[in-house]
């Protein structure tokens, strides 16, 4: 598991998982925890893919510098519960983050998270939007603390979350390998059928 993924997992404590479970109206925190791990992996791969793209990378880097310095991580429970307000509303705009990172693939992403974790597709979609600011906060905190430019950030993301992830999943690391395939889809209109077929094959292993 990459350093960034380890850092995200550290912030997804049992208390945070319980808070997320309540917010999405789920019953099983263990299922939410598994879904949260899948969502985090998916979003880190999407951020990595964006950072390595010359056209989209600049916009991503600008958003990280402007809206995601990792400040929410200091009192994540307070932020998630609404007891602590953030000064910059864009920091917690999970819908906007997911729109930027996944675009029209959001439904397919929710479906794969659902297949991977057992959490229903609607709750998986809502969970993705709740976790997105946390993942961006970890990435932003890393960028800020190390003074990384876009190239440096891309190297951290690719070195920690890309090749190692692909190697891990190819060796049987559960359903997370589906997420890499999702991000490689070309949007030819047959994405859902292809994705479900891939997901079902992996989940049956």
Features:
205 residues, mainly alpha, globular
Give a structural overview.
The protein has one domain. The protein is mainly alpha-helical and 205 residues long. The protein has helices spanning 3-11, 14-24, 29-51, 54-67, 76-81, 94-102, 106-117, 121-146, 150-170, 177-183, 191-203. The model is unreliable at 160-176 and 185-205 (pLDDT under 50). It is globular, with a radius of gyration of 16 Å. It is 74% helix and 0% strand. The longest helix has 26 residues, at 121-146.
- Number of contiguous helices: 11
Listing every helix as H and every strand as E from the N terminus to the C terminus, the arrangement reads HHHHHHHHHHH
Dominant shape:
globular
What level of helicity do the residues show? over 70%
Our measurement of the CA-to-CA distance between the termini, rounded to an integer number of angstroms, reads 21 Å
Strand portion, in percent?
Answer: under 5%
Which spans of ≥5 residues are poorly predicted at pLDDT below 50? 160-176, 185-205
Tally of strands: 0
Rg from C-alpha positions?
16 Å
Global structural class: mainly alpha
Provide the residue-averaged pLDDT: 80
What is the makeup of the main sheet?
A: none
How many domains is the backbone divided into? 1
């Amino acid at each position: 598991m990459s350093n960034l993924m380890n850092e995200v997992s550290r912030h997804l404590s049992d208390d945070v998982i319980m808070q997320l479970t309540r917010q999405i109206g789920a019953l099983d925190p263990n299922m939410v925890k598994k879904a949260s791990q899948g969502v985090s992996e998916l979003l880190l791969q999407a951020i990595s893919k964006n950072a390595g793209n010359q056209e989209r990378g600049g916009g991503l880097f600008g958003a990280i510098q402007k809206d995601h310095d990792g400040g929410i991580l200091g009192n994540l429970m307070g932020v998630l519960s609404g007891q602590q307000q953030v000064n910059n509303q864009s920091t917690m705009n999970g819908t906007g983050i997911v729109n930027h990172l996944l675009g029209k693939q959001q439904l397919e992403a929710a479906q794969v998270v659902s297949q991977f974790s057992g959490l229903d597709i609607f709750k998986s979609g809502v969970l993705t939007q709740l976790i997105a600011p946390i993942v961006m906060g970890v990435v932003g905190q890393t960028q800020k603390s190390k003074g990384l430019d876009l190239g440096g950030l891309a190297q951290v993301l690719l070195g920690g979350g890309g090749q190692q992830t692909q190697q891990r999943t190819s060796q049987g690391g559960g359903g997370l390998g589906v997420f890499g395939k999702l991000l490689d889809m070309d949007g030819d209109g047959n994405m859902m059928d292809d994705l479900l077929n891939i997901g079902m094959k992996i989940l049956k292993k």
